[in-house]
Each structure stands twice: as structure tokens, then as C-alpha cells.
Write a structure and sequence with these properties.
The complex is a heterodimer. Chain A is mainly β. Chain A is built from no helices and 10 strands. Chain B is an all-beta fold. Chain B is 0% helix and 51% strand. In chain B, strands 2, 4, 5, 6, 9, 10 and 11 form a 7-stranded mixed beta sheet that branches. The chains are: A mainly beta, B mainly beta.
């Protein structure tokens, strides 16, 4: 089955840029989506189709892909961005929706 | 605005079954594909299955195929997930999530239902 790999944690100081990566075989051929999960709150879609933002998501959040890695970039990080972030794809071979293991973003 | 409202927390004994609900408002089930994702304590997200946006039929992750049944009541705009033969490994927060149209990402999420399996 298809596997997405994320680093367990990323730490960044306020005002700096956080890079959260998601690796997967041939991920360049798939659409990658990103979700934010704050403690005790419902999940929120922050990037879809690699690099599109839903309405209401700040433009500090952006997505990109290169090779076998997708990246969620959070610019000018704020304390309120502290959360777990998950990448997700739909695997056409299995017809399964697949999530990465999640990355905890800590704002120092 | 689409909202997904899930049923309340459940405590079950090993071997029992649980039926969770997810009520949709703000859109019709015909426009949405509802899926179920669970999260064990301290763990990541695990997709369990959902309704195929192509044909509306349920798709299950293989490991759940024999003990999970997903149904929908279009009259009450409610989707259900019935899970049997519960073990302590099934203790988790269960989320319903919605795809719109032919999207392959989850636009909307429910608030989650905590299921605790304990003797």
C-alpha cells in the first residue's frame, strides 16, 4: 500500500518559516493535500491540490512539490500555528485515501 | 456552509458493536461523499473507508472489511458507521469527513466521537 512519510516534529521561532515535508513514491503524480489539527479542535484543510488554499486560510500557508517530496510552507509563523499537520493523497492503484503520519509544529 | 455533527462518546466492552452517526447540514448527501477516519490516542489519522464519489458505493480498507458497515439515510441527511467485534485497539476518536463532488480531499470534518473499548 502507498505510504506517506512525514518528520514527527518541526520547531520554529515566531516570525520564521516552517517547512513541513511529506515524502512518497511518485508523489509528483498525485495531488497532495494538507490538514491542520489543533489540540481539541476539528481538522481543517489548509492546502489542496498541491498548492491551493481554501478561502479563509492565510496566504502564509503554501504548498509545493519537488521530486518525491511535497512541502507545506508556513511563513511568518505565529503562536497560533502550533498544531499537528497531516499530508494526504488519494492512491489510484488501491482506491484508498492515505494520510502521512503527521508532523507536530512547535512554535518556540 | 456544510456542517458535520457527530454523535456522542461511547464506552463499549470488548466484543461489542458500536454505531456512530454523522449528520450533514448545509448540503445534500448527493453532493457529498462521507468518509470515516480514526485517530488512536497519540497517533496519526487512519482512513477507514467511505462512499466512492464515482458511484456512491461504500469502500472499506481491507482490514475493516469484515466488521465495518457504512450506511446513509438520505431522508435525515445522516451517515452511519457500524463497527463490530470491538477490541481495545479500536479505542480512538472517530471522525467523519466530507468530499465535495469529485474532489479527493476532505473539505469538511466532524468534531469527532470518542470510542473507548474497555472491560
Amino acid at each position: 500500500s502507498y505510504v506517506l512519510t512525514q518528520s514527527p516534529s518541526v520547531s520554529v521561532a515566531p516570525g520564521k518559516t516552517a517547512l513541513i515535508t511529506c515524502g512518497g513514491n511518485n508523489i509528483g503524480r498525485k495531488s497532495v493535500h494538507w490538514y491542520q489539527q489543533k489540540a481539541g479542535q476539528a481538522l481543517v484543510l489548509v492546502v489542496y491540490d498541491d498548492n491551493h488554499r481554501p478561502s479563509g486560510v492565510p496566504d502564509r500557508f503554501s504548498g509545493s512539490k519537488s521530486g518525491n517530496t511535497a512541502t507545506l510552507t508556513i511563513s511568518r509563523v505565529e503562536a497560533g500555528d502550533e498544531a499537528d499537520y497531516y499530508c494526504q493523497v488519494w492512491d489510484s492503484d488501491s482506491d484508498y485515501w492515505v494520510f502521512g503520519g503527521g508532523t507536530r509544529l512547535t512554535v518556540l | 456552509q456544510v456542517q458535520l455533527v457527530q454523535s456522542g462518546a461511547e464506552v463499549k466492552k470488548p466484543g461489542a458493536s458500536v454505531k456512530l452517526s454523522c449528520k450533514v447540514s448545509g448540503d445534500t448527501l448527493s453532493e457529498l461523499s462521507i468518509h470515516w477516519v480514526r485517530q488512536a490516542p497519540g497517533k496519526g489519522l487512519e482512513w477507514m473507508g467511505g462512499f466512492d464519489p464515482e458511484n456512491g458505493e461504500p469502500i472499506y480498507v481491507h482490514k475493516f472489511q469484515d466488521r465495518v458497515i457504512m450506511t446513509k439515510d438520505t431522508f435525515t441527511h445522516t451517515v452511519y458507521m457500524d463497527m463490530s467485534s470491538l477490541t481495545s485497539d479500536d479505542s480512538a476518536v472517530y471522525y467523519c469527513a466530507a468530499l465535495q463532488g469529485r474532489n479527493d480531499y476532505f473539505d469538511y470534518w466532524g468534531q469527532g466521537t470518542l470510542v473507548t473499548v474497555s472491560s
